[in-house]
Amino acid sequence: MEETVVKGMTFVPYISEAEIQEQVNRVAREIVESLGDDKAPIFLCVLNGAFVFAADLFRACDLPEAEITFIRFKSYEGTSSTGVINQVMGLTEDIEGRNVIIIEDIVDTGVTSKALRETLAKHNPKSVKMAALLYKPKSLTTGQVPEFVGFEIPSKFILGYGLDLDGQARGLRDILVLKED
After folding, report:
1. How far is residue 43's CA from residue 46's CA, in Å, rounded to a whole number?
2. Virtual CA dihedral for 7, 13, 19, 21, nearest 10 degrees?
3. Band of pLDDT at residue 152, cut at 50, 70 and 90
4. 167 contact partners, CB below 8 Å, separation of at least 6
5. 139-162 burial by CB neighbour count: b if 16+ within 10 A, else e?
6. Three-state DSSP class for 120?
7. pLDDT tens per residue across span 104-143
8. Which of 56, 105, 108, 174 is catalytic?
9. Would you say the C-alpha torsion 69, 134, 29, 33 has a positive or negative sign?
């Protein structure tokens, strides 16, 4: 893949589709192993960005009794976080006594992760663990480290594979990074 222009900004290849799938499969194995005898967890996909990762990860886990549901938070505008978490779509499933696997596209500051974990704790799950395709440890401000991580990356703006720029470029198969001048 060559350079891609989105909203007047130039992005270059960063992580290939093949590399992504390799890590999705590794993370799936780690999740299944961590569950022990529980083969009926509930996966909670954080929309919109995690939907591509969630679909691939859910299938790679290959747990016929598992369920998936969705929640939506919004905290980004353009290329940066607003610092304000807005819950756009809430939890609709009963998670009491269940093992919950949150599926996030990216953990940046950890503010959304912290808010989500606090929200879920009120519903008395058996456990809550997070799988993030991408994790920016140098940006973390809350201590909300995901239990399962596909890639640790630097604090750069990326898009593709579900990640967007104001709703655009989610359908790119690779992950791209903003080109530095």
Report:
1. 10
2. 20
3. very high
4. none
5. bbeeebebbbbbbebeeebbbbbb
6. helix
7. 999 988 888 888 899 899 999 999 999 999 999 998 888 8
8. 108
9. negative
Both tokens of 79, joined, read: 């290329």
Residue 42 CB partners (closer than 8 Å, separation 6+): 66, 67, 68, 69, 93, 95, 98, 99, 100, 101
Secondary structure class of 125 (helix, strand, coil): coil
For the question of residue 108 being annotated catalytic, the response is: yes
Amino acid in the structure at residue 109: T
In angstroms, rounded to a whole number, what is the distance separating the alpha carbons of residues 161 and 51? 9
Task: Tell me the angle at which helices 51-61 and 17-35 cross, rounded to the nearest 10 degrees.
Answer: 50
